[in-house]
Every structure is written in C-alpha cells, then in structure tokens.
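Hello,

I think I submitted the adenosine-5'-triphosphate job twice by accident. Can you confirm which output corresponds to this input? Input:
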Amino acid sequence: MALLEVDSIDAAYGNVQVLWDVSLSVERGETVALLGANGAGKTTTLKTICGGLTPTSGDVRFDGESVGDLPHEEVVAKGVAHVPEGREMFTDSSVRENLELGAYVDRSGVEERLAEVYGVFPRLEERADQRAGTLSGGEQQMLAIGRGLMSDPDLLLLDEASLGLAPVLVEDVFAAIERINEEGTTVLLVEQDIYNALGVADRGYVVKTGRITLSGTAAELAEDDRVAESYLGA
Ligand code: ATP
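Support: Only one job matched these inputs. Its output is below.
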C-alpha cells in the first residue's frame, strides 16, 4: 500500500475548477516530484493533499486512511507536513522560536526534534537566537523546511523550496532534501527546477492545466522532451 494515494481528484476555487481527475501515489521512502508550469495546478494539488482545500470529487488516502475531507490540522496530526511557497515565518521571533512553533502537534519531543533539524541544517543552530527576519533567503528557506520537520512528519510536502535562491543555495536546499529523505521522511516536492528536482526524485509527475499528462521514473522523465515542453504553456 502506498503511503499517499491521490485518487482521481477534482478541485475548484469557488466554481472555477482547476484540477481534473488527478491521480498520483507516493510509496513510503520515496521522493516524488510534481513538475509543471506556473498555474498548472501543483500548489493546488498539495493544498488538497494536506487539507487546505477539499476535493470536489475523488479522494486522498494517507497510510490507507481517507483524509480528503479532514481539515489541515488533522492531516498534520496524522503525519503530513506542508512547507508552503513563500517562506512564511514570524520575522520578529528567533529561529528557535519559529522552529518550536512547528512542533505544535507534540510538545514532548521538541528538544529531540530540534537536534534532528539542527543536524540537517547546522546553520540554523548557529543562528538559533537570531531574529528570523535577519536571515538570508537561503537560511529562511532552511527555516521553513526545518519548521515542517519539527512535527516529525512521515510525509513532507515541499512547495517550490528552491524558488528565488542563488544557485549555490539551491544546491544546499536539494542536498538537504536528499538527506531528509535518507533519514526516513517520504517527500513530495513541487518544483519548476526540473533538473534539480529530477536529480533528487525517484519518480515524477507532470501536471499541465490541471491534469496529469506524464509520469515515470526520474531517469525516464529526464530524457523526455515533453517535460520541458509542458513548461511552455500552463
Ligand atoms: P505556481 O507555481 O504559479 O504556484 P501552480 O502550478 O502551483 O503554479 P496553482 O497555484 O495550483 O498552480 O494554480 C492553479 C490554477 O488555480 C491557476 O489558474 C490559478 O490562477 C488558480 N488559483 C490558484 N489559487 C487560487 C485562488 N485562491 N482562487 C482562485 N483561483 C486560484
């Protein structure tokens, strides 16, 4: 049984439908990339998985259990963490305080979780007492991912983790994603950076105008010209 199964979901904002019959699965231990142009429906797919939006039809199953109708907090409590695009954080609070806020599901393991996050992102430990607003863009992205890890998720959903970062920081972020996965967290990432995403992923899906148009192993997709072509129009 897959850890995550998205089964033929449709989704809409009000009466504007943006996802049609989207199905995908993520096995425990995998890193899977969801690729596609601006506005294709990647963010909406993640929102629907983590309870930010209820599918209008179809279902989302996590660890065999239907979660499509559950609110975000309950999906998080079941072991899904969502790192949204845009690195939202409390800029006046310290790095450590921001991380502690990510652990709201279970206060008991906070110190242990902090140690694990600092293991992945030593820079955050060095800057633990610094105000989050003073971090560089790359450090803020590490903090956003670190906050997601604080709830000790089985599945980490990452939305455009590398967007807007300098190339050297992009490498750091993808190296961290690989390490997080090696340490046992299953990852579903949304990316416009096809090359790096397929570099860390086992498999991928391409979404175009709200529909899955291609899927395959990362190696197959890396060789397929249709992947890059799908970015030419949303
Ligand atoms: P991006 O990389 O730009 O975030 P995306 O692939 O993640 O692109 P979505 O954000 O899922 O795409 O958007 C899919 C479609 O839904 C787009 O047409 C977008 O304009 C529309 N959309 C997104 N959010 C809303 C909203 N809150 N209300 C109405 N329409 C929305």
